[in-house]
Design goal:
Length: about 325
Amino acid sequence: MQSDAESSNSSERARAWWVIGAGKGEILETCLAESDAQQAGHLVTVESLYSGISRGTESLVFHGRVPKTEHSRMRAPFQAGDFPWPVKYGYANVGRVLDGPAELLGKTVFCLYPHQDHYRVPAAAVTLLPEGLPPERAILAANMETAVNGLWDGAPAVGDRIAVVGLGVVGLLVAWLASRIPGTRVTAIDTNPDRRAVAESLGLTFSSGPAPDDHDLVIHASGHPSGLETALGLAGQEATIVEMSWYGDQPVSAPLGAAFHPRRLTLKSSQVGGLSPARVPRWNYEKRLALALTLLRDDTLDALITGECRFEELPKAMPRILIDGRDTLCHRIVY
């Protein structure tokens, strides 16, 4: 297989992870051409140090479950190829700048780039890591952005009773952030009892069973339709349920009978690709990413990285991570 980039006359080469079929992937040579940067302007060449696997979205991509209607909207910023495959996909890369503007040379940066050993992008596409944030943890930046955006959409207040259903990386980050709002009562809920240890390491109250139905705000992030039913049942009168799961092409039945109308519940979607409308006058994507990186400086968040492998091991490791890795949170790739 040969990507568009590989057809370039450039002699500079890199190695990248490509999904080439349903549940199949390979590390392939790709061209490190200036066309990869996708736009004019100052460029930086980055040597990857780490990247992170976003299990929810990357599992849908790996199995070819991105709906045709979403092929355009679901494109990652530096994706190559088209859905369903072959496609180079990913958006959690931390690396060191090898070439570019003097103020960036040698600096460690985050970029929404796929799994590739080195790459060239516009300088504006990389964000310097703040002081105090280890590069090993910075791979969580995209997940933290999603969590921040979800809470902006939910607009929790001081003293709110908040439930978070689904304790993957995003759900745990949402619950952790919400618990830092003064006076909140946050319950972190997952059917997997093994999530208790990591939830409690973040200072959260964990539950795998029934919880009160008096919540002011419920966040659903499990990715399973049954979790949405649980979330609706936890909401109190006039409460808001924020749906952060993305189901791909999976049909979802929402139980909108019973108490949904008498309690005047609000079911609201949240998607990181769009800033919360209330924030748009004052925030942009660059500011949101910078905030996410700053919030990651807390050492307790290392608990969200539950495994790692070498980049060269991806062809064998990716199926295990995405198919069998029920207990995996964020998996780190080391270059």
